[in-house]
Amino acid sequence: MSQASGSGTPMSDRKHVLSADNVSKKFDTAEGPVVAVDNISFDVRPGEFLSVIGPSGCGKSTLFNIIGGLTPDHDGTVTVGNEVVRGPHPSIGMVFQEESTFPWRTVIDNVCFPLEIAHVPKAERLDKARHFINLVGLNGFENRHPSELSGGMRQRVAIARTLVSQPKILLMDEPFAALDEQTRLLLGDKVLQIQQELKQTTLLITHNITEAVQLSDRILVMTYRPGKLKRMVDIDLPRPRTSDVVSSPAFGAYVARIWGDLREEASRGMQDSERAR
Amino acid sequence: MRAAAISPARFLPALFGLFCLFCAVAVVEGLLRAGLLNRFIVPLPTEVAGSFGRLFGEEHLLARFLTTVQETFYAMAILALIGVPVGTLLYQVPVLRKATETWISALASAPIVLMYPLFLVIFGRSAATIIVMGVIAGLPPLILKTIEGLSGTRQSLINVGRSFRLTRAQMLTKIMLPAALPTIFVGLRLGLIFALINIVGVEFLINFGGLGQLINDLAERYDMPGMYATIVFVILVSVLFFFVTERLERWLRRMA
Amino acid sequence: MASADGMKGRARAAGAGIGVMQVRIVLLVSLLAAWEIMARSGLLYRDVVPPLETIGWALVVLLSSQAFYWNLGVTIAEVLAALAIGGSVGFMTGVLLGGSRFFGRALEPYIYYLGPTPKIIFFPIMIMWFGVGPGSKIAMGAVSCFFPIALSAAASMRQIDTVLIRVGRSFRANGWQMAMKIYLPAMRPSVMNGIRLGLGIAIIGTLLAETKLSNRGIGYLIMQAYSIFDMPRMYALLITLFAFAIGANAIVGRFGGHTTGK
Hints:
The complex is a heterotrimer. In chain A, 37% of the residues lie in helices and 23% in strands.
């Protein structure tokens, strides 16, 4: 739908921070090869919030790892600016689905981690870390260990840790999957606020429709196995948004429309997993 | 075709391991033959392998082995007779358990084997010293595992017992102990491993009894190939023992 | 009367009635009393169970002699050297086995099955290789503690949460940074536990070797006391030895406990 045809030409690249071009990935499993991602192409515009949504098992996380440069042998190319992604790229900051804070580091030391890796001097490191801890609303918790925080707070630490490296693109893989619904909505608010404050280009992978509609400018719907691009949906809800948007009729219409797209895919996925049992 | 594709991947590491072992032995043999290693310190591996016949014939390796087995067997009997009842008692009397459990686990990691000179004074150089050292080493894990097994009995089984109005003794013998059996076996196995290590070790240290004494004897006679061969034999026996009881443990667990 | 009451309803009274501490004190006192009665009754061979007072004096004499501290120093130095050698070799082996599925499958069974074998029987070989001095004792301790440390390092390597490794990679940490900032801290608690196990076993290995053949160290002192049937001194030595082992254990335990807490 909205693919840029010439991601190879530098001219059109100016408009896109990141483009994926015919990205595919196959896995060899005991039951034979599985096509996790099949020929997916899309672009991310500067400052936009793009979500990739699909049923469980559609290869979203594989796509996440490919864009993040953690899955080496895939077909197609991912480009950031003019550079092809071959391994983790400095312009991309990843937030993982799993619990990913370092249990042995305090909050501030967790957030300092990427700066340590980049050899940023200590004073500057602490300044920046404090700034982003404030941004995610964890001031006062700098010297706690992750074990002393709630799941939602830990995920905010992980987000701050990624933001502190000031990536051009924030890439998140179901960062709220392990949280309960209320925490999830509130954290969504936080992410919206941060994104609007930083004009942060964000690519969110999720299976949660309300979350995707609440946060996104555009939503890319994926099919279940093989993971193809099914539809690109523009979300024309006013900004700045908060979680209040959830109660608006337009919101409901978007959710219903995306559920219509997803329903068939999700039920195929469910049949598959039931057969496997 | 799929099976053919998987099986080499599974056996390759094991084959590589065996290959490494073989290479290590071959390298030692080569270095010795080339005169790069001192033959008075390390005997030729082929000579070590060749000395087994002599060991079984002249040194009565089999009889030595049986002596050690016998000591281990007595130790096991005493272990079971003391360990399981003590564990049961501690389970039945929670105060006693709370008071002593940390002591017992401290004992389990303490260097108790170094008390062997003490028992040497009491029992002299005899099988009793060896067996007692084996029992002492094996008791803490057996007691702890017995307690663990009994406390792990499923509540539903206990409720079944209650519904039949079993007495406390019946509850113990008909329900709790059978349910705890796999865990108790784990304890017995651990205890036996510790006991065997100590038995062979003390045999060597006090120069009395079975395989341990043979190693000491051969070392004193400077019979290098024989000594190395006996050490290899002891290792094989322990590994076999460890392996067989491990399988037995898994089988028991599957039954439960 | 409290005890008669306690006998009947022991299990029920457990939580509230009798305190754990009281039971411990009663147990300890009755143990010591039984010991004293046995000592005074003369039922066992003379001096096998010496009166507590005699052991106490022997302990005082031992702790005030300079030779004891010199021998203790020898033993501590041997144990530390054994732990350093066996521990570092074991750790590196464990990292290799835990880091590579192939090497782990190929070689770990050997370490796993060799672990629970009596190590002291290698002592004659160690004497051949490293002489009758401290070298062979250090070697015994090192061989003993190699196994538990290698196995725990391999296990902790495998237990590392893979997402933490992906975090490190996503921030483009290099190999050295990955090792120092991710692998080592993530492995620390279980490696510390392995070192604690290894330390206990290194103490046993080193001291057993000392009791077999040596002219210095705590193990030698124990055998010397044995050879002149000086039982009070032997008890005193064993008491100090156990105190040493428990103390060493506690020190390593403290290092291990700091990772996730406050």
